[in-house]
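Case study: Phosphoglycerate dehydrogenase.
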Amino acid sequence: MTPTLNVLILNPLSDRHITTITNLVPQARITVSDLESAREYIENTDVIVAMGMTDIRPLFSQAPKLKWVHALTAGVENLVFPEMQNSNVVLTNSRGIHGIPVSEHVLSLILAFSRCLHVLIRQQIDKKWKRTLPDEIHEKTIGIIGLGSIGREIAKKSKGLGMQVLATKRRASQEIFVDKMYAPDKLLEMLSFCDFVVVSLPLTEETRELLRLEHFTAMKRSAYLINIARGDVIRQSDLVQALQEGLIRGAGLDVFDQEPLPEDSPLWDMPNVIISPHVAASSPYYLDRAIKTFADNLARYANGGEMFNIIDKSKGY
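Here is what the predicted structure looks like once written out:
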């Protein structure tokens, strides 16, 4: 008889999501709970499924049978803690499902800046009829810092719009949609060529405050920065200074070092900044994709197969 797998999911699910899991893994016993009630079920739990920002540490110490934690997000910052790192519990994420919405968000920001929509919307609010001088993104250069699955989707769409695509990546590889690859230690050189710079990196100890004033100084004064990764990848005070001093032309920011962004942040009132409240990956299809990814991995786990999207807990990605 196939043993039951007790799966505790700390996120609301619809019946169709549960069906997606149980159709692939009939022996899975699914419990959907909030953090407060999860203690009732944790003692017999084999697998925890949660968003990467969920703090499961209080549950972790009470889960003697726990073998695997899966993040419904790509980021796993709150799931990589000392007890997890020192355990045999496997950690996986939902890497690979974010490329479509995030790349569309990035391209919308690039087009908005290029066609001066950030200026025109403000003029509309003020009922001001004033022509602007829009630009084109055709043959402009985009630099992607971090060429994972999201970065590749951004590169593909950018190339389709006639842009020159540069990118940094830890390990060199041939990329069909990238014109030139740069090693991480050549980042400053790459930045000097870019009209748009997109940050697409996981947050780790290595990448925390990776982008500082020296990087903004290396960029073109006509360049725009777009961050859809994590706010802490950028030293935010340096970014504010760069925007105030005109070291770069503007920024499209979906993530911040403090969320929600405090009301007294100078970023709110900058006319050359477009702010979105950490929604770049949002999509009506997000949870469908995330649950399908988990269910596929659960089937592999149940059948003794090789799992995918395993996180190196020592590195955090």
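For the exam, be able to explain this: The chain has two domains: 5-97+284-302, 99-275.
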